[in-house]
Amino acid sequence: MNNIKGRGVMSKKNKRLPYLKFAEDYDDPYRSEYPNYSYCTECGIAYIDKNWKLDVDDSLNKNPIVCPACRKIKDNYFEGILYISGNFYKSHKDEIINLIKNEEHRQRLRTALPRIGKIEENEDGMIVYTTNDKLAYRLGKALFKAYKGDLSIKWSDNNIFTRVYWERDE
Asked: Helix %, strand %, coil % for the chain, to 5?
């Protein structure tokens, strides 16, 4: 578990949060090869040269499929969860939601597959479910960078599932 607490003062030594490599021996049922120029009928992303891409010319799309991210969302299979809590969240909810959506979009420009699956709100705060463990990690880092607070990251044993906790009281 990694904890970063305080008002965002980080030494040069701790500028980056540790990230462990994906467990190669993990058999992900959603991970598979698709024919080149496949496109998702749900979200419209395309699989070209072994990469998922946004905004591809429709004339290139030849093989209709449902992408792994859309399948994960449909099956409620999430690899990352971000818990957001504290009084700061309650008074800055709209700003935090915008930051999360913008960071998701920025990550999707790199690779179109990771995305937010769903967002739930409760009396304590908000829970963000992601289709990818790295996205939950990056959303937590973005919150910490923008608003400071306390950030805690818990990796599963095989680094397949990540829980990220961000909290800030005024």
From this structure: 30, 25, 45
